[in-house]
UniProtKB/TrEMBL annotation:
Binds 1 [4Fe-4S] cluster. The cluster is coordinated with 3 cysteines and an exchangeable S-adenosyl-L-methionine. Its cofactor is [4Fe-4S] cluster; [2Fe-2S] cluster. Pathway: Cofactor biosynthesis; biotin biosynthesis; biotin from 7,8-diaminononanoate: step 2/2. The lineage of its organism: Bacteria, Bacillati, Actinomycetota, Actinomycetes, Micrococcales. The keyword Iron applies. [2Fe-2S] cluster binds at residues 110, 143, 203, 273. This is Biotin synthase. NCBIfam families: bioB. [4Fe-4S] cluster binds at residues 66, 70, 73. It comes from the Bacteria.
Length: 359
């Protein structure tokens, strides 16, 4: 056992592996240790990523009307959440949305579609979008998130120019049946491995704050470590009205920071993204969390508004970090284009469908 969190960081820097006891100590640390924990995690973050922040941008290709019953999701089967619902965006609409994120500094565009998994026709549709996007922005990474993949689909996406594939584990295997019954945890693991085998960079992460125990959270983080994912997005539950987890408020800003630190210590050299729900749960600790996480989503999420993109970029700059640009170049985090349309405004115009008052 380590004497303090800096000892633990030193051990990680010399090839050590986080143990369950170490993980328990991180999650059980009290508020008086929060700055020490953050500073120790920051040494790992800077050792592997310097002072850069990778900016990612979501494009929601198809929203709502999902046949799956994931309890956390506003797009789930039977959801009463008031969200945008629309079928596939036209390629030019997807390109317009992607371009707005790239102009703001995103080095990765994430193309996301609701549903259990894509048909072969859906894969061809996304491949066409990716080809056009790569023609216009050849240095930008493209990540697809289309659900559970069937044999051969990951290879088609790779050939089309997709760089990465996201499919989150979300929670531990032991907890999975409590949050979803229409598919299994093993389906998610298999999809991540399909992506890896096809040469796609694997991206897989968590949703925290769903009532999981510390042991279940540790199980999930260690499972991601075993999968050797290249990037780990940590989502903080947004308890949408109209879903089974509405009114589930179990997180504090300090505990969110501990969770990020746990992932950083478990996977020191892995891209760690503070993702959906960071604004409502980390709140004023978001700039401090940048000293642990090295990646974020810019602007809005799939069915909810995030922090304004300009505010995100100012936060990065104010915290002393720089935005990592495509091809590894570094650019200023300052937002120069005040007239650039926000992601949500593009979605409202482009989708032309239902809009919730609080979507």
């Amino acid at each position: 056992m380590f004497n303090n969190f800096h000892d633990l960081a030193d051990r990680q820097l010399t090839g050590g592996t986080l143990t369950r006891d170490d993980a328990r100590a991180i999650l059980a640390s009290d508020d008086s240790q929060l700055l020490e924990l953050t500073a120790a995690a920051a040494t790992l973050r800077r050792a592997h990523f310097g002072n850069t922040v990778k900016v990612n941008y979501l494009v929601n290709l198809k929203s709502g009307l999902c046949p799956e019953d994931c309890t956390y999701c506003s797009q789930r089967l039977g959801s009463a959440a008031e969200i945008l619902k629309y079928t596939w965006l036209k390629p030019e609409e997807a390109a317009e949305q992607a371009a707005s994120g790239i102009r703001a500094g995103a080095s990765r565009v994430c193309l996301v579609a609701s549903g259990k998994g894509p048909t072969d026709r859906d894969v061809d549709r996304v491949a066409t979008m990716v080809a056009g996007l790569k023609d216009e922005h050849p240095q930008v990474e493209v990540c697809a998130c289309l659900g559970i993949l069937k044999d051969g689909q990951a290879e088609k996406l790779k050939i089309a120019g997709v760089d990465a594939y996201n499919h989150n584990l979300n929670t531990s295997e032991s907890n999975y049946a409590d949050i979803c019954t229409t598919h299994e945890y093993s389906d998610r693991v298999r999809t991540v491995n399909h992506a890896k085998d096809a040469g796609l960079s694997p991206c897989s992460g968590l949703i925290v704050g769903m009532g999981e125990s510390d042991e279940e959270l540790i199980d999930a983080v260690f499972a991601l470590r075993e999968l050797e994912t290249d990037s780990i997005p940590v989502n903080f539950l947004m308890p949408f009205e109209g879903t089974p987890l509405e009114d589930t408020w179990l997180l504090t800003p300090a505990h969110c920071l501990r969770i990020l630190a746990l992932v950083r210590f478990a996977c020191p050299s892995t891209e760690l993204r503070m993702a959906g729900g960071r604004e409502m749960h980390l709140r004023s600790l978001q700039p401090l969390a940048l000293h642990v996480a090295n990646s974020l989503f810019l602007g809005d999420y799939l069915t909810s508004e995030g922090q304004a993109a300009k505010a995100d970029l100012e936060m990065i700059a104010d915290a002393g970090f720089t935005v990592l640009a495509p091809a590894g170049a570094v650019t200023s985090a300052a937002a120069d284009d005040d007239d650039a349309p926000s992601p949500i405004s593009i979605r409202r115009r482009g989708a032309g469908t239902e809009l919730a008052p609080n979507a």
